Amino acid sequence: MMKLSELQVKEIIVVEDGKRLGHIFDLELDVDNGKILSLIIMGKKAGLFGKIDEIAIRWEQIVTIGSDVILVRRSENSPQLYLQNEVK
């Protein structure tokens, strides 16, 4: 069993190219089934006054959760993108 606070200190890395995406900010949960649907990370600011995007990584994209990193793969639907979608 793992706590959210333990997940939040792990860095998220894309396995295809080693790109560092950051750390978990939040989780998207299926409250009916008690399962994690997505990991939410903070995106980059767009411009000087741009808002910070929240980016969701689907649970299915996780390859492994190690002692200090979480390895994820690119979305199969959008291989050019690192992440599945942005949470609005």
From TrEMBL:
<dbReference type="InterPro" id="IPR014238">
    <property type="entry name" value="Spore_YlmC/YmxH"/>
</dbReference>
<dbReference type="InterPro" id="IPR011033">
    <property type="entry name" value="PRC_barrel-like_sf"/>
</dbReference>
<protein>
    <recommendedName>
        <fullName>PRC-barrel domain-containing protein</fullName>
    </recommendedName>
</protein>
<dbReference type="Pfam" id="PF05239">
    <property type="entry name" value="PRC"/>
</dbReference>
<feature type="domain" description="PRC-barrel">
    <location>
        <begin position="2"/>
        <end position="74"/>
    </location>
</feature>
<dbReference type="InterPro" id="IPR027275">
    <property type="entry name" value="PRC-brl_dom"/>
</dbReference>
